[in-house]
Amino acid sequence: MKRDIFGEEHEIFRQSLRRWIQSDVVPHQETWREEGIVARETWRSAGAHGFLCPWLEEEHGGPGGDFLHSVVVIEELAKVYESGFAVSLHSDIVVPYVHEFGNAEQKKRYLPGLANGELVSAIAMTEPGTGSDLAAIRTTARKEGDEYVLDGSKTFISNGHLCDVCIVAAKTGDADTNPHQAISLFLVDAGSEGFVKGQRLKKMGMASQDTSELHFDGCRVPAANLLGPEGGGFLMLMKKLQQERLVVGVAAQAGARQVLEDTLVYVKEREAFGRPIGKFQNTQFQLAQVATEVEVGQAFLDKLLQSHVAGEYLVKECSMSKLWHSEMLGRVVDTCLQLFGGYGYMLEYPVTRAYMDARVQRIYAGTNEIMKVIIAKQLGL
């Protein structure tokens, strides 16, 4: 089906982005996967070309586009199977916190660098003992004069090693404080006293993305780096998780479409028993099913994107997208990999890496079990 959510400016942006990806991303992917990290100069190049935070207003150093420009970035990186260059995490998950909840001084200090790639961002919510249960975090922040002192540890933090600034969720209330009113957010600069970046974690997929442990051992943060009101962190997180889950849906949909397209090419070329495997009825039926899911998923997602850009409250629908699109991606990649036979088990084939990359989509940004809980609550159950 023809998509109609993008304007001419988005397509011009897409073509420019495509050229940049071929010149600045594709030649380095193997090195990034081997080293487990994306080169910092690529972040700067992305910023210089306007591919970071493309929705950010020009007054803050951004290109002045909209969220659909970010969707284009996610889709084009999916076309080259680049799952580890965490542009969407930076541009569409972390930076929006600074943009919406930061004060004038914080915006002036951070936004231009976040847009031009001089500053790489991360967000630290998950802890070793807590996953989707944000209210149960144990990292604390106590006020001492004009500083807060943070103590605790975070894990599974994407961009954790590269980050120049990290948004950290910590408890500022006492034992009697309502857990949902005890969380605050802090902008913690790399190099801050007591901020220690731990080991880079070895993962099943997303090989080029640096994912690290972070430790805060008496980490002193200026009180001016409190993001939003003290105790307002939980509400801010809940507000921004709508877009985070939508980003997962976009990435899953784009990934599924690319795997399908590459599989269609493969089954027309690969022969068995004297003819292309695409001529066998089993292959045709499997890919007919996969193609149907991809088209249905795109229709729902595009409608959701239009509503999101229009500013609608879509907690239920974004949770549905995260749930369904990530599950759909898993089905599509598993089906397609099977059609590659033994080659589908070889890391040199993108479908193999896509298979490993897909699994985490059902876990991060809130597990799919949590998505079902949210959807049920939104249904009044």
The overall pLDDT average reads: 95
Strand composition percent: 15-25%
CATH architecture of the largest domain: Up-down Bundle
- The counted number of beta strands is 10
Name the CATH homologous superfamily of the largest domain.
Answer: Butyryl-CoA Dehydrogenase, subunit A, domain 3
The Rg value, from CA coordinates, equals 21 Å
Quick structural overview:
With 381 residues, this protein is an alpha+beta fold.
Explain the overall architecture:
The model has no long low-confidence stretch (mean pLDDT 95). The chain has helices at residues 8-24, 29-35, 40-48, 67-79, 87-101, 104-116, 233-269, 281-309, 315-339, 350-358, 368-378, and strands at 121-124, 140-144, 147-158, 165-171, 183-189, 195-200, 211-222, 226-227, 271-272, 275-276. With 381 residues, it is α+β, with helices and mostly antiparallel strands. A 4-stranded mixed beta sheet has the order 1-4-5-8, with helices on one face. It has a 4-stranded antiparallel beta sheet with strand order 2-3-7-6, with no helix packed on it. Strand 9 and strand 10 (275-276) form a beta hairpin.
